[in-house]
Write a structure and sequence with these properties.
Blueprint lengths: L1 H20 L6 E19 L21 E20 L6 E12 L17 E2 L7 E17 L4 E15 L5 E15 L2 E14 L1 E15 L2
Antiparallel strand pairs: 1-2, 1-4, 1-9, 2-3, 3-5, 5-6, 6-7, 7-8, 8-9
């Protein structure tokens, strides 16, 4: 997946150049946190014939190629935090957004503790039992739809594309996210925001995830 890292880095570098070229008075910077959950598909095997598990002496396979294959979906949390750069004035209903943040995926769970199909004594699996550390970069738009409370409260949608392009285990991935966003102006140049987003991660297959992105933005204008 080095192509993922290369393509994502080039994509983000291009946007970074655009941000640098923008006038200093048009835009802003923010801090953000993230919390949510993702779906992991975990493959595991049975070293015994599952049709004989209820017998006193089940049939044990001699050849690993004969092991029976199973899968389970695990819903595991993720956490993160980082920065958001904003391109556009604070009153613009369309604002460019660049998010770069650290993301930590929780460890996978031992499938032998979660299966009712295979006796735990015969489960064979390789799973990640430590947290996964990822650097994520996203580019997108924050789109305002309606403003309420004397224009202090804005309701809209946020959409982003990018990738998890910094990993320790070489498992980079593309990611896209979309979902509703609410922002509230607490001062002339300061806004609080919350974005509830669906995220789809793509590395060979699509993995569903979703979470809450929240924080504060400071506008230069």
């Amino acid at each position: 997946m080095r192509n993922v890292a290369t393509a994502t880095a080039a994509f983000l570098a291009g946007f970074g150049a655009l941000m640098a070229a923008a006038p200093a008075h048009a835009g802003g910077i923010g801090v953000m946190g993230a919390v949510g959950a993702r779906q992991d598909k975990l493959i595991y095997y049975s070293s015994a014939d599952t049709d004989t598990l209820d017998q006193k002496d089940p049939v044990i396979y001699d050849d690993i190629r004969d092991y029976e294959r199973f899968s389970q979906i695990q819903n595991r949390p993720f956490y993160g935090g980082g920065l958001e750069l904003i391109l556009g004035d604070r009153d613009d209903m369309f604002q460019g957004s660049f998010r770069f943040y650290y993301n930590q995926d929780a460890p996978q769970l031992d499938p032998s503790t979660r299966t009712s199909v295979v006796d735990p004594d015969y489960v064979v699996a390789a799973y990640r039992d430590t947290p996964r550390h990822i650097g994520v970069g996203l580019i997108g738009l924050n789109i305002g739809i309606v403003e309420l409370a004397s224009d202090r409260l804005r309701i809209g949608v946020a959409a982003h594309l990018g990738g998890g392009f910094i990993t320790l285990d070489h498992t980079e991935y593309f990611v896209g996210s979309v979902g509703p966003e609410v922002s509230y102006k607490v001062a002339r140049q300061v806004q609080l925001f919350a974005n509830l987003a669906y995220q789809g991660r793509v590395r060979q297959t699509l993995t569903n995830s979703g979470g809450l992105f929240f924080g504060a933005r400071y506008y230069f204008d």
